[in-house]
Design a protein that fits this description.
The complex is a heterodimer of chains A (268) and B (230). Chain A is 39% helix and 15% strand. Chain A is an alpha/beta fold. Chain A has one domain: P-loop containing nucleotide triphosphate hydrolases (Rossmann fold), CATH 3.40.50.300. By secondary structure, chain B is of the alpha/beta class. The longest helix of chain B has 14 residues. The radius of gyration of chain B is 19 Å and the shape is elongated. Classes of the chains: A alpha/beta (268), B alpha/beta (230). At the A-B interface, helix 7 of A face loops of B.
């Protein structure tokens, strides 16, 4: 078995990297994949909270790198999925505590036993970002449909190109269909037109994402959530399945739907 | 007397390091390190431009040189070269690269003269065969041709013309040395800002119009944009 190392990054902060990492991890684990999530945001760890595993932390990424514990000891097993693990970031150190070479060595040790290694990158383009992308076989760029997030994503793609990494794929997070329809928000086409990379998924805005992150239960475990469905679709695409993009333009209001049908509206 | 392997001199823009284009890389870097250490501390905090002459410098060599300078507190600010390999390496490292004086001299320039005449034969330039993404900057004394898009946040500063075989959405300055005959062409012209010589123009805020190749040039002391039919 040889795991695929997937790094989730964005340039800009607050676009949903950690939420995406947590949800893809859970979605992959639901499909019986052996998954380890690595929080590379040393000093500002978050992934443990979103995964609901904060109180189980004993050792962290820096402890492994500096030899204070064995790799096994730092793997925190998820409550619901026995094959889903987390390596948390250290809270007290900074990005320089780990080097890109350390990250490559660490993932190489995990590759044999796992199917997927997901790395949650910190925001920015400095050391923490370099650490996160160094071992990546594939990079996913998370962006929001707004100009500043897309600008940062573009910069990051440029840096990855200079590193001769495989062309990253794009996750468009927090898409609000009603605003896109009114022309107030960039559409997926507007974003991919600038970034010129392939989309792997579009996550619709969902009020339940924040409460579910707060309670440590990623939204993708909520069967009724469309955002959760979108994350499950991305996980299937990561596994190589050809999953059609879902029509986001689906409301439960039949009259609205009919009206839209006549107006020639279409999904994204 | 034989030509020194490396030379360090002060210019009005900061330090200029010249490196022998022919001697082995390991030898010249060792020589440079020794010269810097002779007056250790004196150069710390400085910014340098390095002129490689005709030497093709690979990305890893350029990185090691940058590290060598950084260990001594010196920032590698820009490079000059006559080699396309070196320009590629510099652009991969986000370093400012320009064609060096040797090449400029071939264009027979003298002080006070317009640095570039874009109708002249045999003028030089760079061809960039990829999209310039946000944050990337290209400086060149000659023409710049991009086969790809110029994204928002990217910037091109050229002594001559700028031709974009793609969408121009970033910032472009053509004729940056004062050449008012310089032009900017793009298949789809939606720049953040364009400049030709000392003129500045912002695109109109109007909604998307029909996409067509366009050329920007100076006419009656302002920048005008017209259909590109050259």
């Amino acid at each position: 078995m040889a795991a695929k190392v997937v790094t989730i990054t964005s340039g800009k902060g607050g676009v949903g990297k950690t939420t995406t990492t947590a949800n893809l991890g859970v979605a992959l684990a639901r499909m019986d994949q052996k998954v380890v999530l690595i929080d590379a945001d040393i000093g500002l760890r978050n992934l443990d909270i979103v995964m609901g595993l904060e109180n189980r932390i004993v050792y962290d990424l820096v402890d492994i790198v500096e030899g204070r514990c064995k790799l096994r000891q730092a793997l925190i097993k998820h409550k619901m999925f026995p094959d889903l693990y987390l390596i948390p970031a250290a809270q007290t150190r900074d990005k320089t505590a780990v080097s890109p070479a350390d990250m490559i060595q660490l993932t190489d040790q995990l590759r044999q036993e796992m199917d997927f290694i997901l790395i949650d990158s910190p925001a920015g383009i400095e050391r923490g970002f370099r650490n996160a992308v160094a071992p990546a076989d594939e990079v996913l760029i998370v962006t929001n449909p707004e100009v500043s997030a897309v600008r940062d994503a573009d910069r990051v793609i440029g840096l990855l190109e200079a590193e001769n990494k495989k062309t990253p794929r794009l996750i468009l997070n927090r898409a609000k269909l009603d605003q896109i329809r009114k022309g107030e928000m960039m559409s997926a086409e507007d974003v991919t037109d600038i970034l010129a990379i392939k989309l792997i998924g579009i996550i619709p805005e969902d009020d339940q994402v924040v409460p579910s992150s707060n309670s440590g239960v990623p939204i993708t475990l909520n069967e009724g959530s469309r955002a959760g469905q979108a994350f499950r679709n991305i996980a299937r695409r990561l596994m190589g399945e050809d999953v059609p993009f879902m029509n986001l333009d689906e409301s439960n209001n039949l009259i609205k739907r009919l009206g839209r049908l006549f107006a020639g509206g279409k999904g994204i | 007397m034989t030509e020194p392997l490396t030379a360090i001199k002060g210019t009005k823009d900061g330090l200029l390091i010249t490196i022998s284009p022919t001697e082995e890389w390991g030898v010249v870097t060792a020589d440079l390190a020794a010269r810097l250490d002779e007056r250790s501390g004196f150069y710390a905090g400085g910014q340098v431009r390095v002129d490689f002459g005709t030497r093709p410098v690979r990305k890893d060599e350029l990185m090691s040189l940058r590290a060598l300078l950084e260990r001594r507190g010196i920032t590698l600010n820009a490079i000059s070269t006559a080699s396309a390999t070196t320009i590629d390496a510099a652009s991969a490292l986000d370093l400012r690269a320009s064609l060096n004086d040797a090449v400029a001299a071939a264009g027979a320039l003298s002080d006070g003269e317009i640095a570039f005449n874009s109708v002249e034969d045999g003028t030089y330039g760079v061809l960039i065969r990829r999209t310039l993404r946000g944050g990337r900057t290209v400086h060149n004394q000659g023409h710049v041709v991009v086969v790809g898009d110029v994204n928002p946040g990217a910037e091109i500063i050229a002594g001559g013309d700028v031709i974009v075989w793609g969408k121009l959405r970033g910032k472009v300055h053509a004729g940056a040395n004062g050449d008012e005959t310089a032009v900017i062409c793009a298949l789809d012209m939606m720049p953040t800002q364009i400049r030709i010589a000392s003129f500045i123009s912002m695109p109109p805020a109007e909604k998307r119009r029909k996409v067509r190749p366009e050329m920007a040039l100076i006419r009656e002391n302002r920048i005008v944009v017209a259909a590109w039919e050259a």
